Amino acid sequence: MHVISFFLNIMKYRGYIKNFEVHDPHRVGRIAIDLQGRVNDCRALTYRQDIKAKDIEKYKTLKLPTRQWGYVVISTPDGVLDYEEAIRRNVGRQVLGYFH
pLDDT tens, position by position, for the chain (100 residues)? Predict the structure, then answer.
């Protein structure tokens, strides 16, 4: 549930959703999301694909439809980051998913 919350925080920070609320996080739980109307596609990868910092830009180009919008979310040693922050910090590890 924590990884999903980090993913949704990035979506909120980037303006793709208004807000979200986690109900009963200690059990199965559910999440209520207030959509902004900007999300065309949101994918979480069930297999965590390893990625190096130098390959993030290439991966982003393959998965996102344009350079102008969308984000790849990556789990790094510095926490869960979007691709821009991961490139800026020069870290990589596992791709969690992407949205646009």
Answer: 578 888 899 899 988 899 999 887 677 778 888 888 778 888 888 787 888 889 888 888 888 887 778 899 999 998 899 998 999 999 988 999 888 8
Q: Which pTM value belongs to this model?
A: 0.83
Q: Are 9 and 34 in contact (CB under 8 A)?
A: no
CATH number for the domain spanning 88: value is 3.30.1490.10
Beta bridge partners of 33: 20
Structurally, how many domains does the chain consist of?
Answer: 1
